[in-house]
Every structure is written in C-alpha cells, then in structure tokens.
Amino acid sequence: MLLKGASLVHFHPPGLVKADLRVEGDTIVARGPRLRPKRDEPVEDCRGKLILPGLVCAHTHMYSALSRGMPGPTSAPRAFPDMLARVWWKLDQALDDESIYYSAIVGAVEAVLAGTTTIVDHHASPNAIPGSLDIIREAFGVVGVRGVLCYEVSDRGGLRRRDAGLAENDRFLSATRSDPQFRGLVGAHASFTLRDTSLAALGDLVRYHRSGVHIHVAEAKEDVERTQTAHGCGIIDRLERQDLLNDHALLAHGVHLNDKDLARVGARGAWLVHNPRSNMNNGVGHAPVERFGERAALGTDGWPADMLAEARFAHVRLRERLGLRGAFPVASLLEGGQQLASGLFGVPFGSLAPGCAADLVVCDYVAPTPLSAGNLGGHLLSGLQPAMMTGVMAAGRWVCRNGVPVNIDVEAVYCRARQVAAAVWRRMRG
Length: 430
Ligand SMILES: [Zn+2]
Prior knowledge:
alpha/beta
C-alpha cells in the first residue's frame, strides 16, 4: 500500500516532513518524496493530512472499561488503599470471562479511535484467573490493536490466587514469545501487597523469560510507608534485592520516589510510566516526571487510552506545579512509549521510517495557524483531536477507517457490554 502526500510527524525531537510511505505486510518499507505506485498497489491519497506514528498507552487496566457510571462507595474512601479495597478490588473480583472480554473489547475500541495502536495492560480478575490473558488477547485481536499483557500477582487473595497469577503470567509469556501482535510481562500489584517470597517468585519468572516486571511503584504514600514498616527498607530496595529492575521493567506512577530512587531506577534502565489523570483523580500527589529521565512514558491507568488527552493533562499539571519556567516536552513521553514498544517487540516504533512497524494514524488536521516542526508540540497539545483521526493502522492493517473501527460491529458490542456491565455491578453489590 502506498500512502501519498502526507506530512509525517515525529514526536520527539519534533519532526514534520512531507513524504510518501510504502507499507508491506506489517512494516514500513520505503519513504520518499515521490514514490511511484507499483502495479496493482493500493494508493491512499493523504495530501493535506498528517500521519502520526501509532500511539502507545504504557500502563492501563482494561477491566475498568465497564466501570463507567458505576455507583460509587456509599461514603468517601479515607485514603488510596481504602479506595482500592472498596472500589477497584470489588470490581475485579466481580469479573468473569465474559466481562473480561467485553471490557477489553470496549477499551480497545476507545484506544484505536484515539490513535492508540499498542496497549500495555495490567489485568486482575481474582475469580477468573486461568486463561484471562487469552481472553484479552482475543478481544484485542478482534479490534486489531497490539497488546502487552500481564496478570497482576498479589498476596491480597491468598496463596492459591497468587500462584494462579504467577502461572497465568508464565503461560502467557511462553505462548507469545514470537507473536507479532502480543507480548507478555510479569505482572505484580505493588510492594505493599507482596511479601518477600512472592517478589522472589516474580524475580524467578522475570529471569526465566528474560522479561520485565510490570508493577505499581510508590503510587500513593501508603505504598512507601507500609513497605518501610513491614520490611524496614524502601520499595526500590526490595525490587533491587529480587533483581526485578532491568531494562524491560515497567514501574507505574513513581509519585513518591525520591531522587536517589530515581537514579537507581535509571541506572538499571527500567521504565517509569506517568499517569497524570489517575494521579489527580485519586489525589495521590504530583509525580516528579521532569526527573524521570529518558526512559519515561505515558499511561492512562484505567481512563480511556486517549494519549493526546493524557499528554494535555501531563502538560497542564506540570505547569501548575512548576510554574511557567517548568517547561517540559510532554511529547517526549509519547515518544518514550514508542521506544518501550520497540524494546518489547524487537521492531522500531515511532519514526515512520523504512524498517519500522507499520503502526500509524492518518489525521485530517487543517491547521488554522502556521504549522512546522518547531511548533508541532503546540498543535499536538491544543489542536489534534480523536475525531480528526480518520485512518488508524496497526501492524500493517487498517483498524479504523473514516473514524470507524473496521473489524467489529461497535453497536452490537456496546449493546452486549451494557448488559454485561450491569451484571458486574450487581455482583459487586452482592
Ligand atoms: Zn494502574
């Protein structure tokens, strides 16, 4: 397929170049000013349009897709762990196979409509663990989005569930070793819900599969305090002791990490994922994202996987905290997600160059002001909207055309999803 005449975007450092792109299979194979169509090659006229590299949501929970409009707790939670116990752990315990499927498919549809072509998910369903990651894989496969999946291991549900979670990660990592569309990670909840023996078992899995842990780190201050009280050390000490910090490790939040912690995380090449909307909504504090270093990405942590919306929150929150002198290129976090995906899939993402994954977003963006590489950040933050994303391609296949997902009947899926969500909410009350 030949995409002709678009301006190609690079997030960071910002780039904007007019060129044609040729896609063969799941890869971009050529890029140039005037590529000539081959015989019988489909040609897409993209004149006047932007093409972005596909966006990556580096941390989220698809199971929360069916929580929209869900009745809240009868009284306000006292603090973050109380919120987990009274809302999110009730929701994940109410999940069954069908609700896992529908939450994943609804979340994936919302993602591709916003140009997100890779979703890094962190899943929990304590009463439906075995095979749960395959259900998400099936739902993502239907929509056409790429997935990096894991099961959240914790000690909150006892040994049997902990071991089932470890086994689910182990099984999925083996099954997706060479899958072009999916990868596994070793999922873990957080330091404050994991005893030493469980962290050691996670470390064994990471070493065996040469993978990385995907874990919440210092999201709320209680994770730091409870770790100190129970283990007499910091969260990063515990992760280091079990050899869990490596260049595939993905640490979500990092709100309460100090500079010493951040330096140790950076020295091991682990990724930090910033989730500004979630942090604000849970009132857990301000993440020091400007000190996260180069290996930093953006996640939505249960909010719809609209990465440009998340980038806007990251930007305004940084401004609010640091003032006008606190300039930080939030587009570097979008680029970070693409680098993270490159490391996981072993293929370059993010630069729309020959040899890169054919994951891209065609945007019908008519700029009302001059547009150049130099002011691209301003257009990304205050101009581009999902409604302008008319074509979304993941792994070389169109997953949205004219702003509509191509592989599924959205109306029928949402109709069943509403029934499934109502049943989940009833189980939560029971
Ligand atoms: Zn999370």
